[in-house]
């Protein structure tokens, strides 16, 4: 009785004692099952007919953990696929082969639904019959309810449920089930990863590291197209935005191809930064651009902002300090046939803003007319540091301000652990710019990076009083060199 989870208190109830004293043993089982609510409707005593598929010892009971590997795999660090074999007893119905399809449709909610496992198998005792495997979780006590039995009677199928020995192998378990069985009980199981082409990128916790090679191999086995699994072993370097990694399993080739928003990229994942989780955000920014706009990509990486913008017929100036990123940026521009539309630079972000960006804005903004529709956008996707670069916009240009509509729009990314992350990033941006952005900016939550750590994008037009420093009258100097010394400006 305890095997089936019945409480001893049930046996002590007057109702049960009275009924049991006048009832045969099979009926006692019926009463127990119906009283506990485990079996709806009439109870059918199961004839112990067993169909065996392998000679090893069989667990002769309905296994409530049907999809759990064998307990002997606990603590395994070197993957042994054979150790995952086990045989469990499941309910089955014997059916004439010509009505199998009809039965599957009628009892589809009860039939075993499991990728890799057959729902219909041959009957070893009758070549004209088949065995339909049922889900043991939905057939408690190997007994069908009245409504199911009625369906079987209409199909002229014997309602007797038989026991079938179902063989489970490594291939039948999901990666999460395998890892939960292998890692110590109670430990967090992480089967998620970022996919970068043929590479699975994992961020394993300390308690998972002893099992890292097994985890890597399981991820490869269970995900078609993945042939290499790596684990990050260091934090992202803020200078080049890459990190050290260990190949856990599979091939050691880290040069891969990815496709994002219908554009192909190639990269060496060990040397450049690529995060597939930012695909939606990159698409959002590119959607803001219109043909003819100008994009300045300060931390361009391999081109996920720059190349789609160029495809959209924008003029693009793209920069990255990492020589590897710069080379892959050039490569991907050629790959996507936009190399004539993207001007690429390998510079520090500040020097890029003070050089090519200032030069282009100084040349273009004075020519802008009120009715012109083209806009200037500056993307600064270096969330660990980008906000600190905003001070470069202070008096970046000299002269009379252009029309407000032509002022460049900045999209700057940052991390925040503050309880009010939007206010935090705005406060930091204002401190760098030296002015208030109240009512002049918007913040967008990009994603949750870690517990209590958010990635955000703050967008704003650079205020004219920040971007420009104005010359003042000075008869002793050429007009091009007169500056307002009273405001602390120096001569260029």
Automatic annotation (TrEMBL):
GO cellular component term of the entry, any: mitochondrial matrix
SUPFAM superfamilies: S-adenosyl-L-methionine-dependent methyltransferases (SSF53335)
Keywords: Cytoplasm, Methyltransferase, Mitochondrion, Nucleus, S-adenosyl-L-methionine, Transferase, tRNA processing
Keyword Mitochondrion: yes
GO molecular function: tRNA (guanine(37)-N1)-methyltransferase activity
Xref: CDD domains: AdoMet_MTases
Residue ranges occupied by any SAM-dependent methyltransferase TRM5/TYW2-type domain in the UniProt entry: 193-464
Chemical reaction(s) catalysed: guanosine(37) in tRNA + S-adenosyl-L-methionine = N(1)-methylguanosine(37) in tRNA + S-adenosyl-L-homocysteine + H(+)
Alphabetized InterPro entries for the sequence: MeTrfase_TRM5/TYW2 (IPR030382), SAM-dependent_MTases_sf (IPR029063), TRM5-TYW2-like_MTfase (IPR056743), TRM5/TYW2-like_N (IPR056744), tRNA_Gua_MeTrfase_euk (IPR025792)
Keyword hit for Ion transport: no
Biological process, per Gene Ontology: mitochondrial tRNA methylation; tRNA N1-guanine methylation
Family recorded in the similarity comment: Belongs to the class I-like SAM-binding methyltransferase superfamily. TRM5/TYW2 family.
Job description of the protein: Involved in mitochondrial tRNA methylation. Specifically methylates the N1 position of guanosine-37 in various tRNAs. Methylation is not dependent on the nature of the nucleoside 5' of the target nucleoside. This is the first step in the biosynthesis of wybutosine (yW), a modified base adjacent to the anticodon of tRNAs and required for accurate decoding.
HAMAP family documented for this protein: TRM5 (MF_03152)
Protein name: TRM5 methyltransferase
Gene: Trmt5
């Amino acid at each position: 009785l305890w095997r089936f989870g019945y409480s001893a208190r049930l046996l002590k109830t007057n109702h049960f004692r009275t009924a049991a004293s006048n009832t045969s043993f099979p009926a006692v089982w019926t009463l127990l099952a119906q009283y506990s609510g485990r079996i709806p409707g009439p109870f059918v005593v199961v004839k112990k007919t067993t169909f065996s598929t392998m000679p090893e010892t069989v667990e002769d009971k309905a296994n409530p953990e049907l999809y759990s590997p064998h307990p002997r795999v606990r603590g395994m660090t070197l993957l042994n696929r054979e150790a995952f074999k086990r045989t469990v007893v499941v309910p089955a119905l014997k059916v004439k082969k010509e009505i199998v399809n009809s039965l599957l449709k009628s009892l589809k909610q009860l039939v075993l639904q499991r990728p890799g496992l057959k729902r219909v198998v041959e009957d070893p005792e009758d070549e004209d019959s088949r065995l339909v495997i049922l889900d043991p979780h939905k057939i408690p006590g190997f007994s069908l309810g009245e409504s199911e039995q009625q369906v079987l009677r209409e199909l002229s199928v014997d309602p007797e449920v038989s026991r079938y020995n179902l063989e489970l192998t490594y291939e039948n378990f999901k990666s999460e089930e395998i890892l939960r069985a292998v890692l110590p009980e109670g430990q967090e199981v992480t089967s998620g990863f970022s996919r970068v082409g043929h590479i699975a990128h994992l961020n394993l916790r300390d308690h998972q590291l002893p099992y890292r090679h097994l985890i890597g191999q399981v991820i490869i086995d269970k995900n078609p197209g993945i042939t290499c699994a790596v684990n990050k072993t260091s934090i992202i370097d803020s200078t080049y935005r890459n990190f050290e990694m260990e190949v856990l399993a599979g091939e050691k080739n880290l040069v891969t191809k990815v496709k994002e928003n219908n554009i192909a990229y190639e990269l060496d994942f060990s040397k450049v930064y690529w995060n597939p989780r930012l695909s939606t955000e990159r698409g959002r920014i590119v959607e803001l651009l219109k043909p003819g706009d100008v994009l300045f990509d300060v931390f361009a990486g391999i081109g996920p902002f720059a190349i789609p913008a160029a495809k959209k017929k924008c003029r693009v100036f793209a920069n990255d300090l990492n020589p590897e990123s710069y080379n892959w940026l050039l490569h991907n521009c050629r790959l996507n046939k936009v190399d004539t539309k993207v001007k690429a630079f390998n510079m520090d972000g500040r020097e890029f803003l003070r050089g090519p960006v200032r030069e282009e804005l100084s040349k273009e903004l004075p020519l802008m007319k009120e009715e012109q529709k083209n806009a200037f956008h500056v993307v600064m996707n270096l969330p660990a540091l980008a906000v600190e670069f905003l001070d470069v916009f202070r008096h970046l240009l000299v002269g009379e301000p252009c029309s407000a509509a032509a002022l460049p729009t900045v999209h700057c990314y940052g991390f925040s652990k503050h309880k009010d992350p939007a206010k935090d990033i705005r406060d930091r941006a204002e401190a760098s710019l030296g002015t208030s952005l109240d009512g002049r900016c918007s913040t967008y939550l990009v994603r949750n990076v870690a517990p209590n750590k958010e990635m955000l994008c703050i967008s704003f037009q650079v205020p004219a009083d920040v971007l420009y420093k104005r010359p003042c009258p000075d008869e002793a100097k050429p007009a091009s060199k007169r500056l307002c010394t009273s405001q602390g400006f120096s001569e260029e």
